[in-house]
């Protein structure tokens, strides 16, 4: 059963007292004072903890990976964009999964930086472009979009254009690569489709206790997309982006795959950028109960037990250092705990300083619609849980300044 959002704690005075795990002290108590000590010791042990106890390990390697350019056109968006549609196929144990990347690149740039992000209802929903096929994969039912029987239809074309400022990206010299996350792993509480069954041994029907949940599977899909994108001559570098649950996946992808040049978390909340120990808005117990397939089963032992967690989400963010990181919140999105998201970015900044990079020095939440942009950036904007043109405008300004 799920929890109602209404009975969550939204009162700062009721946030429990807690001690935040120190980034600069190893699990065995040794101080971390240099970039080398961070890389070789502390970063590795934090990454391993998150891998085994939070998101879950990928249980092996693929037998085969391939990609195929399905379609290409140089006249998209009134001639300002080059469109590519690429199918990625993953094979293991004589089973396979194929998912599709929709790419728009600005023709004015021979090589462009690209935002890579998952979408929620199909590649055809992010654009009105009639050349983008409707996904055949399972999709969540949505009355407003006319989705029934878990099937997308022509009616859903372009229903999420407001979340993807594609023309603004193109005008600013950026490209977009997007994937429907349900083609990698359908977002439902079973493990009998998507990428998980590729790795099952005989008689296995779900991942083992410390193996990957859906967030880890989605992060894996992003990394496998990167295998194609890094070899595309029209792409200079890739910033991985995600909103909400897909922001959690983007952060984990950025932590586990250093090829991503930058990482953006948009309203990622609990299990994403927000500090778990604050127990503000959505909590570990709530998320593991409402969405038991997202995390490794081993994470469930911290249900209503956050105080015993030897890590917190500022340490996840620190795994991305020294690459640029942007955390964004929305003022009305209290479920995702904007203050907890901000404090994570603030505390992660100590690791960025080891590399000589600028982070967020103050622990005081900035004013609404007043971005703080360094190598670590943060804003809290007016409005609700969503992705807006305002968000994309900040991300592009920041990327132009801080991307390598």
UniProtKB/TrEMBL annotation:
<feature type="domain" description="4-O-methyl-glucuronoyl methylesterase-like">
    <location>
        <begin position="209"/>
        <end position="356"/>
    </location>
</feature>
<protein>
    <submittedName>
        <fullName>Acetylxylan esterase</fullName>
    </submittedName>
</protein>
<keyword id="KW-0378">Hydrolase</keyword>
<dbReference type="InterPro" id="IPR029058">
    <property type="entry name" value="AB_hydrolase_fold"/>
</dbReference>
<keyword id="KW-0732">Signal</keyword>
<keyword id="KW-0719">Serine esterase</keyword>
<dbReference type="InterPro" id="IPR054579">
    <property type="entry name" value="GCE-like_dom"/>
</dbReference>
<dbReference type="Pfam" id="PF22244">
    <property type="entry name" value="GCE_fung"/>
</dbReference>
